[in-house]
UniProtKB/TrEMBL annotation:
It catalyses: Hydrolyzes the link between N-acetylmuramoyl residues and L-amino acid residues in certain cell-wall glycopeptides. InterPro entries: Amidase/PGRP_sf, Amidase_domain, NAMLAA_amidase_2, TAT_signal. This is N-acetylmuramoyl-L-alanine amidase. Residues 67-196 form the N-acetylmuramoyl-L-alanine amidase domain. Its EC number is 3.5.1.28. Keywords: Cell wall biogenesis/degradation, Hydrolase. It comes from Streptomyces sannanensis.
């Protein structure tokens, strides 16, 4: 990884030079320049092991077999949050998402007591929705519990998940509504039913709006 990284840096430097030369005398603002060169193929944002997108989450890496490296939102627009229910416990979710044979994992897992694990970076594509276009456009959040047990969804879980979703919506400019914050059941072509009839969408959206970070 170290070798790749140093090679990446020199390649990046060359590409910046190339992009700047291409626009000639036009001076690009620093942020415009960075947007241009992040879009070039083969260029990735620098990553640090254990880096989090959601402050307060615990980093527990999913198996790399259960997600795909990407560079969102530069390569894919993120405009959906997909709400899931594990049909099992928090430890079971962590275990299967770390299992390379599972073939699926979500970015986040929320525990009954409100503890949040981040398992995949938001810039990467997690295999959670069973649909390639939906995986590419969304962030997936799993919740400990079962769709047919209303008691699975605690106050602490709703509050923590809403804070998480509020942060995601703010980061990518996603509107806080039911068109953009959806259940797995609403993903086109899915046969999954989560989060199920006991998930209180009105309550959840109200909490997400309340948790929206001040701009
Ligand atoms: Zn699901």
């Amino acid at each position: 990884m170290t070798g790749d990284k140093s090679r990446g840096v020199s390649r990046r430097a060359l590409l910046i030079g190339g992009a700047a030369a291409a626009v000639g005398a036009v001076a690009l603002a620093q942020d415009e320049l960075s947007r241009v060169w992040w879009r070039l193929p083969g260029v990735d944002k620098p990553r640090k092991a254990g880096e989090l997108d959601h402050a307060g989450a615990e980093w527990i890496a999913a198996s790399p077999a259960n997600w795909r490296r990407a560079d969102r939102p530069a390569d894919y627009v993120i405009d959906r949050v997909v709400v899931h229910v594990v049909q099992g416990s928090y430890p079971v979710a962590l275990k299967v998402f770390r299992d390379p044979g599972h073939g699926a994992a979500a970015h986040y897992v929320v525990r009954k007591d409100g503890h949040v694990a981040q398992m995949i970076r938001e810039l990467d594509v997690a295999f959670h929705a069973g649909s390639r276009p939906y995986n590419e456009r969304s962030i997936g959040i799993e919740h400990e519990g079962f769709v047919d047990r209303p008691g699975s969804f605690t106050d602490a879980m709703y509050a923590a998940s809403a804070r998480l979703t509020a942060g995601i919506c703010a980061r990518y400019g996603i509107p806080v509504d039911r068109k953009h914050i959806v259940g797995h059941v609403e993903v086109p072509g899915t046969d999954h039913t989560d989060p199920g009839p006991h998930w209180d969408w009105d309550r959840y959206l109200a909490l997400v709006r309340k948790a929206a970070p001040a701009r």
